Amino acid sequence: MPPKQSLSMSWFLQYLRPVKWRMVLLLFMLLISIALQLVNPQIVQRFIDQATGTGTAASLLTLAGLYIGIAVINQLFTVSLDYLGNDVAWRSTNRIRASLLQHTLRLDMRFHNRKTPGEMIERIDGDVTHMSNFFGMFIVQIVGSFVLLTGILGYMFVFSPPIAATMAVFTCLSIGVMFAIRNLGVKASQAERQANASLFGLIEERISGIEDVQANGGVPRLMNRYHRAMRTVFQSGLKAWLLRITPWNVTVILFTFAVTAVLLISVRLYLHGQITIGTLFLFFQYTQMLNDPIEQLGNQIQEFQKAKSGMNRSRELLSLHSEIEEGDEESLPAGPLSVSFEQVNFSYNEDQRVLHDISFELKPGERLGLVGRTGSGKSSISRLLLRLYNIDNGTIRVGGVDIRSLRQEALYRRVGMVTQDVQLFDGTLRDNLTLFNSNLSDEEVFETIEKLGLRPWVDAMPDGLDSRLDAGGASLSAGEAQLFALTRVFLTKPSLVILDEPSSRLDAATEATLQTAVDQLLERCTGIIIAHRLSTLDKVDKIAVLREGRMIEFGAREALAQNPSSEYFRLLQTDRQEELA
Ligand SMILES: Nc1ncnc2c1ncn2[C@@H]1O[C@H](COP(=O)(O)OP(=O)(O)OP(=O)(O)O)[C@@H](O)[C@H]1O
Q: Which residue numbers delimit the ABC transmembrane type-1 domain (predicted)?
């Protein structure tokens, strides 16, 4: 469980610091807008008094013109304030989004295995969007509301202390109640965010598995689950909203009493001739205006509750640490890299060991064929080599260096992997081949494409390297995807390559092209080939046979192929029989 953290001001302020001057400008404009708001009722007061007294048409027109002028300027300020507030909100929350994404990308695979991409999108974007209003306007609105309240009450004290006292009591009561119950909706809002994240997780999971869902007639069942998730979102949202608006509702009730009291006192003062009709209007107008900052405070407290739930979730995510600790070693020896596993044990989950006591050694430039039945642990070995998981015990060395003491970046720079699932990104063919590395020239890309036999495929694309590819990989066949992935790895000039070949059978021509490409790639590096067809292992130096997570055989391919008592010999016989059949 992640440590529970209270919302600290410094966390909030670190994202506001870069926009501090914009916030100062925001505050400055808000103060001017408040001053204008305070002036206008006084113009109306004079207008009424002059209209009912000795005012001339010229002075009334001047007052009316002044009123309109101030109202227009105030509207301009309101629009600019809105723009600037949103600007501050986007700038600051985008920084949080970037921190969350960067942090999430560095978290270990055990974390990612537990979370669906949809849920993560909600956490990185949805939760942060919930904070945006808070970031843009909270401090400014709170300060602005207090200034406006002080302005109104101060002014009222000059005219009528009893009315000012009534307003002051109402204001203090409203603010007191709001602050006392400001956290009422935080937990419920957090539950609402979680329900949303689960819903998005569900939608993403279903859409990414659309082929299986449709082929198995699973749409009605999935819609059923979707409706249940939606119901949870609705129920948790309703509860959170009701709790969040409670402070505001309390102030509405208090306000009704305040307006009644002020009107009663004002009318009495007017009937006794102590104030003019214009001043009575001014009192009424100021009482109405008093509601605005209090309502603003109420709104901000609602936003605070939403934001606090988002911030708690974001901070919780940021407080998670990857189980993969960075090492200090910056580099590996030049040229092809040696590989050694020394008594390696590994489990994904504590109670289920997947690899038992794995030991083997590959010299620089050697090629290893890894064979074994489905689920025997072949892919797990490749994931460990890239340090996607920590091992339970034992040691893995690459280029003679324990990979735990290496910086991850140093390892990824030199080790390439081609997995069974080739991931395409939204971008051009060039972006996908170079993985957005603009340092690679078109000549280098074409040279590699040519070498690996991918040229006819690229030439057939409508805009060559500039053709856009759909994210997800649906536009590639299994063979093309493998060739594509090989090119991608080839361009990184790796010193150790792991090839997890596709289990589906390819046609003879594609297989031959693929084989040529693999040979080219492995020419200048150490290679580990996870093979589903033994025919692809004709050129490897060593063979390792895995069974139920144990390495039951390891040795030179030629020797094993000629030894009738070896497991590899037996597998070769079975493979040949299957091919004949
Ligand atoms: N992310 C994971 N979490 C938990 N268990 C896993 C995970 N990935 C694999 N396993 C389990 O680890 C064992 C070895 O899986 P692995 O993918 O290494 O097998 P494999 O030999 O590569 O299989 P295949 O030939 O089908 O690709 C299997 O029992 C599998 O269920």
A: 24-306
